[in-house]
Amino acid sequence: MTSSPFDAWITNDDEVTSLLSQEWQRQTTTLQLIASENFASPAVLAATGSILTNKYAEGYPGRRYYGGNQVVDEVEDLARRRLTALFGADHANVQPHSGANANVAVYQALLEPGDTILAMRLDQGGHLTHGSPASITSKWWNFVSYGVTPRSDDPENPGEMIDFDNVRELALEHRPKMILAGATAYSRLIDPAPFREIADEIGALLMFDSAHVAGLIAGGSHPNPVPYADVVAFTTHKTLRGPRGGAILCREEYAKKIDSAVFPGQQGGPLEHAIAAKAVSFKEAALPSFATYTEQIVANAKAFGAALAKEGFRNVSGGTENHMVLLDLREFDEELTGKLAQEVLDRAGITTNRNTIPDDPRSPFVTSGLRVGSAAQTTAGMKEGEFETIATLMSRALRHRDDDAIVTEVRADVAAMCATFNPYANFTKQ
Ligand SMILES: *Cc1c(COP(=O)(O)O)cnc(C)c1O
Question: Domain 48-285: which CATH class?
Answer without folding.
Answer: alpha beta
